[in-house]
From TrEMBL:
UniProt xrefs under Pfam families: MarR
Signal peptide bounds: none
The organism of origin for this protein: Cohnella nanjingensis
The organism's place on the tree of life at top rank: Bacteria
PROSITE patterns: HTH_MARR_2 (PS50995)
Keyword Transcription attributed: yes
SMART domains cross-referenced by the UniProt entry: HTH_MARR (SM00347)
PANTHER family per the UniProt record, alphabetical: HTH-TYPE TRANSCRIPTIONAL REGULATOR MHQR, TRANSCRIPTIONAL REGULATOR, MARR FAMILY
Annotated keywords: DNA-binding, Transcription, Transcription regulation
Phylogenetic lineage: Bacteria, Bacillati, Bacillota, Bacilli, Bacillales
Single GO MF annotation: DNA binding
Name used for this protein in its record: MarR family transcriptional regulator
Span of domain HTH marR-type: 10-145
Biological processes per GO annotation: response to stress
């Protein structure tokens, strides 16, 4: 048994970390259930949602924006292409660059899914006042930027 004293600040930091982790797990778990009811996983949905809002994009940029590795983005794009939800094309100026865009069936799926997804998000954030949401955004950005600087 370790008798090390934990300072009040350390205890508060640990509580904050646990609260952040539990909140993230709960919110993302609820959203995952809604997404999975349409036969997609959250990463697949993230790719489709990005293309739905931004249009045709280089696959590398998709991976950067939704925070997955280049190997993973290739795998996810392959799966979505097999499902008929997106299509790819090579860049004529640089054959190493591959663009992805929604296929008509992917566009139709997102036309059905996104309003439902947005409503699920609205329900999850309903307990927070507008000022609390803005404060949360600033706090999480500050924490994230600090964490990025630590590496």
């Amino acid at each position: 048994m370790n008798d090390r004293e934990v300072s009040a600040e350390e205890q508060l930091n640990l509580k904050a970390l646990i609260a952040l982790g539990r909140s993230h797990r709960s919110v993302m778990g609820r959203l995952a259930l809604q997404i999975e009811s349409h036969g997609l996983n959250p990463t697949e949905f993230g790719v489709l949602e990005f293309l739905y809002h931004k249009g045709e994009q280089p696959t590398q940029k998709i991976g950067e924006k939704i925070l997955i590795t280049s190997g993973s983005i290739t795998y996810v794009v392959d799966k979505l292409e097999r499902k008929g939800y997106l299509k790819r094309r090579r860049c004529e100026q640089d054959r190493r660059v591959i663009y992805a865009s929604l296929a008509p069936s992917g566009e139709a799926l997102m036309d059905r899914m996104f309003p439902e997804h947005a409503e699920a998000i609205n329900r999850l954030f309903a307990p927070l006042e507008e000022a609390e949401k803005r404060q949360m955004i600033e706090i999480l950005k500050k924490l994230g930027m600090h964490a990025e600087q630590q590496s």
